[in-house]
Amino acid sequence: MLNIKYEEISKCRPGQVVGKNIYNMRGVLLVSKNVVLNDYVLGRLTDLGVTSVPVIVDHFLADGPAEETTQEKVFKSYQKDMEEYKEILNNLASGKKLDYEQVNALTTSIYQKINHNHYLVDCLNKLKEKDQYTFTHSINVALYSMLIAKWLELSEKQITGVIQAGVLHDIGKTKIKPEILNKKGPLLPEEFEQIKQHPIYSYQIIKDIPQISKKTLAGVIMHHERENGTGYPLGVSGKHIPLYAKTIAVADVYDALTSERVYKKRVTPFETFREFEKIGYGEFDVKIMLTFLANIANFYIGSKVKMNTGEIGEIVFVPPYSISKPIVSCGGKYIDLAKDPSYAIEEMI
Prior knowledge:
The protein has helices at residues 39-47, 65-93, 100-111, 117-126, 133-151, 156-168, 178-181, 189-195, 198-206, 214-221, 243-257, 269-283, 286-296; strands at 4-8, 16-18, 22-23, 29-31, 52-60, 304-307, 312-317, 327-330, 333-336, 345-348. By secondary structure, the protein is of the alpha+beta class. A hairpin with a 4-residue loop joins strand 6 (304-307) and strand 7 (312-317).
């Protein structure tokens, strides 16, 4: 459990992390938990009359040997996870059976990073190379799914089940020809039909392993189902889609959109937020989607961005009710993208 204390705002320092949502007297959300404090956020809270801030004790993100060591460990562990997953896929492709102990060890390794949110999201943002997408995607989906499950306050057993489903959700793609999976142009209808079989192939690979729970099996086979019934392979909707599948669906689409692929450029997280705002309410579980977006958006505070003007800026605040349009510090001024449509974020740096 996080150790949180209320700090006088005059004593707060940039780099500290907000431990609880901060509301005004009318119950309006001002700043979400997990926001990293900076001069802009502290100034905004002061102007709004906030006198104390709930901060996470011993969670200071300024530069220093301890923080660098933790970050390095997270990065190395992520890369090790990717190599483990690569070995799992290569073994399946060569005709070997799935080694459950290897999958379980990978699940445990991912779970061990659950309390390093900021370093973890930083790692996910940086390590998205198109030539490694096949191997990084399932690890990323497992990690994003873990974060969603944590933010939904699921039990440890449920969180590890979600992680395992994330690890396994795409292993059926080993049964699909590489030239279809990596095709640069549009897929032919018959090729897309082949792609749509991968949840079934994944399920078939794992269904006879007794240690894998029914909830994880359901999460794997149904991760492409949609709330409005437009998904595949079963075409079910709403309450007929289990929790793990709903969770992985959000994580899967988010990672796919924000990753570099052989056939498409990655888009910024803020473009992805807009995409979820456009299509998400029909396709995804609203509670899961909003929980994820509201939390993940805060981790981009402090990120450097290139604007459509060519200027380099920094994200200083993400408004809770307008997460696709952050406040950017640029050229000595603050730009509110919700109020000035002439500015846009072109890319993350």
